[in-house]
Amino acid sequence: MKYDAEDSFFARLLDDDHAIAETPASWTHPRTRRIALIGCFRPRRCGIATYTADVHDHLRREHPEIGIDVYAMRADPEQPDDADVVAAIDADDPESYAAAAAAINRSGADAVWLQHEFGIFGGRAGAMVLELVERLAAPLVVTLHTVLAAPDADQRRVMDALVARGSRLMVMSEHGRQTLIDVYGAPPGKVALIEHGTPVRPFSARSPLRDRLGIGDRPILSTFGLLGPGKGLETAIRALPAIAERHPDILYRIVGATHPNLIAAEGEAYRESLEHLAATLGVGDHIAWDNRFLDAEDLLDQIELCDIYLAPYPNLAQVTSGTLSYAVALGRAVVSTPFIHARELLANDVGVLVAQGDSTAIADAVLALLASPEERHALQMRAYERGRRTAWPQIVRQSAALLDQVIAMPPRLLSTPRTAPSLSGVWSMCDDVGILQHGHGPVADRDHGYCIDDNARALMLADRVRFDTVQAYEERAFRFASFIQHGWNPELRAFRNFMGYDRRWLEDRGSADSNGRAIWALGHCAAHSPSNDLARWAREWFDRAAQSAASVESPRAVAFAMLGADELLARFPSDALAGEILGCGAAFLEQLRSRWGTEGWNWFEPTLTYDNARLCEALLRAGRTLGVAAWQQAGLATLAWLCDRQTATAGHFRPVGSDGFGRLYQALPFDQQPLEAWASIEACGAALAISRDTRWRRHADAAWRWFFGANDRGEALASIETGRCCDGLTPRGVNTNAGAESTLAFHLAYHAMDALVWPGGARKDAGFTHADMQT
C-alpha cells in the first residue's frame, strides 16, 4: 500500500522493520500542524459565521505554522463558498456530513475544532452533527456557543453525545462551564473556559465617524446585531421618551439586518412593528435604523460611535454575545440586562445591569451616565481594561494551546518491543475456576464472572507459552480446559458461554461465535499442547463439538471453527472432520464474498464488525492447506482491502471501531479494540507465509505498534512489564480497564509476531512429543 503521508512520523516508523525513530529530545510537546475548523463561515451572515471567520483569520495570523482547513456549514446549497473553504457541509444532507468526515480523516488533520450551535445543523436539535463527529478519527474540540441548563430530550441527546465524544469542550462563560459539569456530567478537566475573542483597537473617546455621518456631539445609544425578538428592542424603545425628555438630541442607532430566518418566515414584519411602536411613543425621530449586515471593521466603527451600548436582551440564559464582548473591548459604557454572559463580563463595575424588561431602569441608568461624563469615562476605562483579556491574539493563543493538549504525542519507542510480556497480567485474572472476563482498572472484576470465549483464548495462550516443565504447563492449561469441558451442554450439543462468579451458568447455549471460539481452541490445543494427555483430550472434544459446525451460518463462527480445524490438520493431516470443516467453510465464505462484494466493497458482509481479519485468515489457511489457489487469492484480496481501511493517512493502524459495528457499508474509528490488532497480525502472518510479500510484515508491525502508542491518540495500551493491556482506545484516550480479552489478545499478538512475522523470530514450541499420537 502507498501511504498518502509518506513524510509523516508514522509512515517513516512503518518503513523500518526493526526500530521506531526516537522523538527528538527538544520536542517536549506535540505541535498542532493542521486542524479542521467546522462552523458557519463567510459569506454567510450570522454570529457563528463571524466568530468562525475571526478564529480562522486570527489563528492564521498568530500561528502561521498551523494549516487550517475550513469546512463551512451551508444552509443553502446555492450559497457560494469563500476562498478559504475546503468543503461545504449542507445542513440537511446526512451524506454531506459523512463525506466531510471522510475528507477530514484523509487530510491527516491533527485535531478538529467544531463550533456548535443547535440551529446550524440539520435534524431534531441539530442531531445531524453526530453523523460527522462519530466518524472523526482526530481529537475533537467543541466550542459550545449555547449550553442549556434545561434541555429538552432531543437537545440532551445531542449534548450528551458531544460531551462523550469531545476530547475538550470549550465554553465562553463560567456558568457554561459549571452547567456542563453539573447538568451533563462533563469531567472538569475536560472543560476549558476561553472567552469570546475581541478586536484590538486603541481607545477612542470620540469616533471620527461622527463627523462623516453629520452626528456631531449628539449623545448616541446603540444596539447591534441581527434583529429578532430575542434582542429586547421593544424594552429599549419604551425607555426613549423619558431619556428624550431630558436629552432632546438623543439618538438611538439600531444597527443590523433582520435575521434571515425571520425574513424567510415573515419578511420585515418585526422591524415594522418596532417602527410603529416608536411612532406611537413619539420617538421615531430619535431612532436611526441601519438595516444591513456589517463586515467586521464596519461593525467595530459603528460600536465605537456610541456613548452607551444597550443590551436589553430578555433571555437571561444567553451564555454569549459577540457584540457585547466587542462593546466592552472598545471601551463603551454598557447598560444590559443580567443575562449570563453580561453578569460575568460586566462584573466588578465594568458595566451597569438592569432588570429584565424594565424600561424605566434602562432610562434611569442611561440618564445617570449622561449626567456624569466623568463617571461614564471611568466606566469606559474599566470596560476597555477588561477587554484586554479577551483580545483575539490572547484568545487564539489559548485556543492553540488547548488544541496542542489533545494532539497525539508520537511514541518514544527506540525499537519494536520483542520481549515477551510478563505473564503476571494474565495470571492475576485467574482463579481456580478459570480466567475472569472483566477488569476494573488492573484488578479482576468478580461481578461479571467468566466466559468460555476468554477461557478458550487462555488455553491457546497456555499452548504458546514456554513453560519449564509439562507439569507447570498442565497446572495452568488444565484449568482452562476444564472450564471449556464444563461449558458443554449435552442436551443441546453446544457450549454455554457466560458463568457468574457463583459458578452458575447464565444461559443454556452460548452464541454461535463463542461456540466457534471453543472449537478453535480445541483444535489449537490438539495441535500445540506439550502434554500428550491434554492433546488427546482436545482432539476428542474437537470431534464432539465440531459435529454441529456444519449448521452454523455466522461467518465468524465458521471462520473460528476453520482456524481450529486447520491447526488440527497440521498435526493430524488425515482428520476427515477437520478437512470437511475447512473446505466447506472456505466455500461458504467465498459464497458470501460473491454475494456481498461490490466495487469498492470487497468483503463477506455488508458490514464490518469484530475480528474482521479472521475471515481473510480462514480463507488463506484453507487455500494453503487444501491447495486451492483461488481461496488464497481471495484471502489476500480481502485482507488487502481491509488493511487499506485500517491504515490511517499517517500510516498507523486504525482498526474498525466498535461504535460502528453493524453499520451498512461503513466503519467508524472508535472504540478501537485489542482483539482487532491480534486478528490483523495473525492474518498478515498467514498472508506473509503464502505470498512472501513484505507489505504484510509492515501491516502486522503497525498493528503490534498500536499497542504501544502508534495509534490515533499516541497512547500506549499495553505494558511488557506488567503484561496487562487496556480494553480499548476511545476518542478521549485509553479505556484503563484491563480485561481478559484485551490482555490475552496482547499476549497472543506477541506470540503471533514472534512465530509468523519477525524475520528470524520464529521458534519451535517446547515439549512437543507426539510421535505416539499420529494414529
From TrEMBL:
Question: Which stretches make up the Glycosyltransferase subfamily 4-like N-terminal domain?
Answer: 47-198
One function term, GO molecular function aspect: glycosyltransferase activity
Keywords of this entry: Transferase
* Keyword Cytoplasm (UniProt): no
Task: Give any Pfam family that matches.
Answer: Glycos_transf_1
Locate the Glycosyl transferase family domain: which residues? Answer: 211-385
One of its GO biological process terms is: carbohydrate metabolic process
Spell out the PANTHER family in the cross-references: BLL5144 PROTEIN (PTHR12526:SF572), GLYCOSYLTRANSFERASE (PTHR12526)
Name this protein carries in UniProt: Glycosyl transferase family 1
Taxonomic lineage: Bacteria, Pseudomonadati, Pseudomonadota, Alphaproteobacteria, Sphingomonadales
